[in-house]
Amino acid sequence: MTASIPVVDFTGGEWSPALNARVDLAKYQTAAKLLKNMIVHPEGGSSNRPGTRFVCECKHSDKLCRLIPFQYNVEQSYVLEFGDEYFRVIADGEQLLDGGVPVEVATDYTEDDLDLIKFTQSADVLYLAHPDYPLKKISRFSDTSWSYETVSIGSSTPAPTTLALTGGSGNSTTYAVTATINGEESLISNEAVGNDNGASMTWDAQFGVDEFNIYQKKDGIYGWIAKASGTTTSYTTDNTVDPDMDSTPPEEFNPFSNDNTLVSLSADILPSTWTHVTNMSCTATGWSASSPAYFYQGRLQYVLDDTVTAGYGLVWRGGSAYTPIIELDYTGGTGSVQVSGFSLTATDTYTSLGTAPRSFRFEGWSGSAWVILGSWSGEINWSDLEKRTFTFNNETAYDKYRLVITQRADGLDYGSMVLGQLELFTGTYEAGINNPGVVAFHQQRLVPARTDTNPQTFWGSQPSRFQNFNVSVPLRETDSYEFTISDQQINEIKWMVSFRNNLMIGTSGSEWVATGGDGGSINPTSIDVKLEGRLGSSDLPAIIIGNSILFVARGGRVISDFAYSLADDGFAGADLTLIGSHLFRERQLKEWAFQRLPDRILWCVMDDGVLLGMTYDKGQQVWAWTQHYTDGLFESIAGIRDA
């Protein structure tokens, strides 16, 4: 006797044959053996899917293309057709034309690059990340006017120019000025030296500036001393004003600089053959050595020949108010030489004089200011005749260099140092690639991540200044931040999404949640990153659907529903492909997009050209798979809200 079992809905979707014996599962009663070219509705019913409509032909039908959504608001939505070094624009169900010609913008991305493009959007600007290219952005000005350009990292406020001091009295002091426009502070102007009392400081006028900040250098670091209105271009120095060392000017920081990488150093270009005189000199070909005016307070007691003998060296003696400086001029050849490293050899017979330098910096003269090429601290515990080499990226040829000692090894400021030998080296470089491969927005910051050199690192821009990654010393909450995930393995970041107050991060081996250390916003001094899973992710971006984050696991065959679990007091994921696992056998998910209306369907383009659909409504316990075929293959998909 046969019995008829009523099937009241199809919210179990197409059922995997591997689960045919699992009659105990609740979804078994609502599943189907085959759902081909059908849609399961959240209410439970099922119907034939609607047909497709031809919009336009791709520019190159014989090449791959990719569809990327551009959503300004719910009423202005576009789909960008990316192809081999171009993109075109589709809106309102048709390709946009300008004078009868498709709106088209040239790009750097080739056909082979399209799969790894990651993107995020703020209003009319779409940011694009790819590990082989610098960060890019697409801006919309009208339906027919679009731009594509490399993101310029740094402050959008130009630094003041032509800073100068005249007159006055007192001590010789170094000053600099910054400009602020709409709350964004520039880098410092050129440095200028003048008297610290009654000197007239001037700089060029600058359009649109709200205010200028004036800084005075103390112990090699700038501290804030005054503020001037945006229409003011002068200031009078006052030695009764102490610099605020807790308020320093921004320092340039570009974590994605594709500067060349130093790979080797040359032979010594400065043999240290010193002459036993009160003032330092150097007899190496093309070089001369000098001591600035404020160096006379000390005396160079010993000199050294090439043998580097213990107990003999360049000794500085002076009060703590003076900074020991060794300045070297290149007077031979073209008058300038590129230096990328130096070495110090210390001698330490005279223990009463302290040991070798503990903190110091190396600078080159630009013609108007000393440029810091590198700085070091904590260099202690030198043994007799020990040689240490220090390197930095510098491909500029300067005609003057100097070594500035900022602290001796016993912790006291300046005082004394023993230097046995100083050697300089040129460098050999190779092209560097340091591009972010992932990008997102979180808490009003642009957050790029995953470079080839730092695959587990993410960076946050200054708030609301998406291209500014400058920092201050000491750090401020509004500075940019940088964080590297510490894990047992080096697994590159694959996706990031902003979810409530959390920055959710998926790597190739794990899932993480980043928050402010106090539960607030992430900033340079407050960040907490916790491990939440060990599934690992593919290159596809995660999708937020309601209170869940869906991501594709490593291998491209499993979709995980990542959501907060009160019982586990953390985030946990469920395998949404289990009931339809046969649909993912011997194929991988290539692209996906979520259609919120009318039926809440997650569309998945597979690498063999098949289209899968999953009706997903977690609140109603609905996730139902269907498969879709057409006269041809599916290649790319994007979802937008169409008014």
Care to describe what's here?
This protein has 643 residues and is mainly beta. The chain folds into four domains: 169 residues, no CATH class; 85 residues; 73 residues, no CATH class; 168 residues, Galactose-binding domain-like (Jelly Rolls, Sandwich), CATH 2.60.120. 0% of the residues lie in helices and 42% in strands. It contains no helices and 53 strands. The strands form 17 sheets. Strands 5, 6, 7, 8 and 11 form a five-stranded antiparallel β-sheet that branches. Strands 17, 18, 19, 21 and 22 form a five-stranded antiparallel β-sheet that branches. It has a five-stranded antiparallel β-sheet with strand order 25-27-34-30-31, with no helix packed on it. The two termini are 55 Å apart. 35% of the residues are buried.
Structure described in brief:
This protein has 643 residues and is mainly β.
* Biggest β-sheet description: 5 strands, antiparallel
Shape: elongated
Structural class: mainly beta
Q: Tell me the Rg in angstroms.
A: 32 Å
- Proportion of helical residues: under 10%
Overall residue-averaged pLDDT value = 84
Low-confidence parts: 271-322, 348-356, 408-417
Strand content: 35-45%
Number of domains: 4
Number of helical elements: 0
Distance between the amino and carboxyl termini: 55 Å
Total strands: 53
Please outline the helices and strands.
Blueprint: E1 13-14, E2 31-32, E3 38-40, E4 46-48, E5 66-71, E6 77-83, E7 86-91, E8 94-95, E9 97-98, E10 101-102, E11 104-106, E12 118-122, E13 125-130, E14 133-142, E15 145-150, E16 164-166, E17 169-181, E18 184-185, E19 192-197, E20 200-202, E21 211-218, E22 221-229, E23 234-236, E24 261-265, E25 287-290, E26 314-317, E27 325-330, E28 337-338, E29 341-345, E30 357-365, E31 370-376, E32 387-391, E33 397-398, E34 400-408, E35 416-419, E36 421-425, E37 427-430, E38 438-442, E39 445-449, E40 457-460, E41 481-484, E42 493-499, E43 502-507, E44 511-515, E45 528-533, E46 543-545, E47 548-552, E48 559-565, E49 570-575, E50 589-595, E51 601-606, E52 611-617, E53 622-628
Parallel strand pairs: 1-2
Antiparallel strand pairs: 3-4, 5-6, 6-7, 7-8, 7-11, 9-10, 12-13, 13-14, 14-15, 16-20, 17-18, 17-19, 17-21, 20-23, 21-22, 24-37, 25-27, 26-35, 27-34, 28-33, 29-32, 29-36, 30-31, 30-34, 38-39, 40-41, 42-43, 43-44, 44-45, 46-47, 47-48, 48-49, 50-51, 51-52, 52-53
